């Protein structure tokens, strides 16, 4: 009711950049993160890029008395990197792995191997039941020529659909994570417009931290400075988004980001700054009802823009599928020619100097390798084409439904 006391929920979100053997001073930073979380006593902690389950286990032992409920989400080859610590009971969990997540042959990026996903944990605390998804989307490695933009848009669309369908029975939604998108990017506009989520940074009554709420800043010693040259202040790609659904209201009282090094040390907690929000949750006298939260005309424009970008990715994937298919066919023809030559030699039909056996064998192994590689890539790009076609079709149907309501 109107007189019910408000719940103040303190939320901590951080991309930990804790990759075993690759991240600089990983163990030291994990310890610093654990000390800070134990000292601050947040209600909910959302961590990304905790790739080592040993690090999660160490944090769980360290934080057990402060955060009695925790969960690690497993997916992909090296894991999702997602884990949650909570003061409130975790009622249930669910993991959804995105249908597209980069390319397996882009080893220097590695997003494909980690199986990036969205994890959902339902929680309460006496003030309703909230759907609490958190996630990480595919990284942006080159803003001028972003080959992964179609994949990231597919992920943003799947994340929006995931939130809409899993939050129907909830009283509210709280999303946190490294979305790898700038606030004005089409992906974040699509996600917010389709779900009605509100940005804690723009809604906060008070803010303290990096200018413009940036979470990847040039003065961080772990940041690759060349990637931030067009952005002298840094970029904001880590978010806490929220909305109330039924008879509750959610208001962001305060938002903070970490700045500089961890207290008493010469290093920051991560290459990303952490985001900390204080949310006021209050029960109202009557249900407020769910809305899209964005004018449908604007949302239609956003869906159209996203669909066009997905279409660009679809045509690129179709070209890749054709190229790898042609390569596989050529390798197969080469193998058939070699087989015919070998049969001819066995039958005594070969004239003159026979083809050197070593060279013949090496050429055969090369053709087999090319055939296997090209076939695998052809199958991968075939799946990519189907996923992009499916998303484009979903966006077309959604756009038609929006236009019919205008």
From TrEMBL:
Family matches, as InterPro entries: Endo/exonu/phosph_ase_sf, Endo/exonuclease/phosphatase, Sph/SMPD2-like
Pathway: Lipid metabolism; sphingolipid metabolism; Sphingolipid metabolism
Molecular function GO terms recorded: metal ion binding; sphingomyelin phosphodiesterase activity
One Pfam family here: Exo_endo_phos
Membrane topology: Multi-pass membrane protein
Domain of life: Eukaryota
Primary localization: membrane
Ranges for domain Endonuclease/exonuclease/phosphatase: 15-272
Enzyme class: hydrolase
Presence of the UniProt keyword Cell division in the record: no
Record-given protein name: sphingomyelin phosphodiesterase
Protein species of origin: Burhinus bistriatus
Gene: Smpd2
